[in-house]
Amino acid sequence: MSSEEMTCYLSFDIGGTHIKYALMSASGEILEKNHVMSPKDLDDFWSAIDDIILTYRSQIQRVAFSAPDRVDIDNGIIYLGGVLTCLDDVHIKERIKENYDLPATVLNDGKAAALAKVWQGSLKGVSDGATIILGTGVGGGLVLNGKLRSGVHFQAGELSFILLNPANQSFDKMSGYLESAVGMIEKINQIIGNSDIKDGLIAFKAVQSKKQKQ
């Protein structure tokens, strides 16, 4: 077995509802995956991350994070955590290095999705392309001339804060609120009378059932 085949990474996707994580091989194969609820505060966040890293510490050579909103990929800092305001100005890369002596990469979630598509998905071999991700907000990533674009303020391709009505600039009138998958799930559950308005499985089952009856 080659050294590359033995290399494993721990990948985190920090979302507004869940933190999803996976143990992955260097070729991109998902070996294990799971999720925990997103944190209420910074202590909860690090407690969850530390527990997961310690579970896989002997198997991993690097840690990767995708996170919402404004992320500095060069320095591994989340400047703005979107709806997770407890993550504002959190130095992920520095802490992972200090606590575990592991290299860490931190990237905006939309840009991480774009890189994944370039690596093994629908943008493979594509010079110019884009991704749109629907979650608690609406994220995006731009690939131009075969390279991921971060932008001067690390927010190239971000869609959540597009004003749909310039006369009303409150967040509940922006695309990230009105067009998010989480917002859609909440509305569906309210319509069908499900008390757990964040239950995506029930919401999508209701949509699928409706389609089958048509």
3D architecture notes:
- This is ROK family protein.
- It comes from Streptococcus equinus ATCC 700338.
- Keywords: Transferase.
- It is an enzyme of class 2 (transferase).
- The chain has 214 residues and is of the alpha+beta class.
- It has 2 domains: 104 residues, Nucleotidyltransferase, domain 5 (2-Layer Sandwich); 90 residues, Nucleotidyltransferase, domain 5, CATH 3.30.420.40.
- A 5-stranded mixed sheet has the order 3-2-1-4-8. The protein has a 3-stranded antiparallel sheet with strand order 5-6-7. A 3-stranded antiparallel sheet has the order 9-10-11.
- β9 and β10 form a beta hairpin.
- The chain starts with a helix and ends with a helix.
Task: For this entry, give a set of tags.
33% helix, Nucleotidyltransferase, domain 5, 2 domains, EC 2.7.1.-, ROK family protein, 214 residues, 3-stranded antiparallel β-sheet, ATPase_NBD
Q: How confident is the prediction overall: mean pLDDT?
A: 87
CATH first level of the largest domain: which class?
Answer: Alpha Beta
Q: How many angstroms does the end-to-end distance come to?
A: 53 Å
Q: State the low-pLDDT regions, or none.
A: none
Q: Main sheet?
A: 5 strands, mixed
Kindly provide the radius of gyration, computed on alpha-carbon positions and rounded to a whole number of angstroms.
18 Å
Level of helix content? 25-40%
Strand order of the largest sheet: 3-2-1-4-8
Number of helical runs?
7
Q: Please, how many domains?
A: 2
CATH third-tier fold name of the largest domain: Nucleotidyltransferase, domain 5
Shape: globular
The CATH superfamily of the largest domain appears as: ATPase, nucleotide binding domain
Q: By helix and strand content, what is the structural category? A: alpha+beta
GO molecular function, one term: transferase activity
Family: Belongs to the ROK (NagC/XylR) family.
Pfam families: ROK (PF00480)
Protein name: ROK family protein
